[in-house]
C-alpha cells in the first residue's frame, strides 16, 4: 500500500473514531465506497480522512445525518454557494437554542422540586419531589 493511502483501521484512527463508525457512514451514504485492493481490502486516501473528519465534527456539533447529507451534497455538487450552508447552520442554531431553552426550563422545574424538599428526616410519603413526579404533565 502506498504512503498516501491507508486501511480502514488507520482511517478510523486518524479521524478519532471506530471502524464500525466508518462502516456506518458508508452504509448511510455519507462516506463514498472506497476502491479496493485485489484482495478486497478497502483503500482510503486523504479525501476520505478529510470527509470523515468533516462528518465527525458535524456530528459533534449536533447536526443530524440528514443535515450532514445536505451539507455534503452542497460540497459534492457544483454551483452551490456559502449562503446555502449558512441557512442550514442558522436553522440548526435555532434548534440548539430551543433545546437550551427547554433544558433551562427543566433545570428550573427540578430546582423548584428540590427546594420544596425538607430533607433527610422527612418521610418519603411527604416528599414533594416524589409527589411532583406523580403529577401528569400539562
Describe this entry's structure for a reader.
- The chain starts with a strand and ends with a helix.
- The longest helix is centred in the last third of the chain and has 35 residues, at 82-116.
- The relative contact order is 0.08.
- It has a two-stranded antiparallel sheet.
- The protein has helices at 8-14, 19-28, 46-60, 65-76, 82-116, 128-134; strands at 5-6, 44-45.
- With 138 residues, it is mainly α.
- 62% of the residues lie in helices and 3% in strands.
- The chain is elongated.
- It has two domains: 1-63, Multidrug-efflux Transporter Regulator, Chain: A, Domain 2, CATH 1.10.1660.10; 81-138.
- It contains six helices and two strands.
Topology:
Layout (H helix, E strand, L loop, with lengths): L4 E2 L1 H7 L4 H10 L15 E2 H15 L4 H12 L5 H35 L11 H7 L4
Antiparallel strand pairs: 1-2
Primary descriptors:
single chain, 138 residues, mainly alpha, Multidrug-efflux Transporter Regulator, Chain: A, Domain 2, two-stranded antiparallel sheet, 62% helix
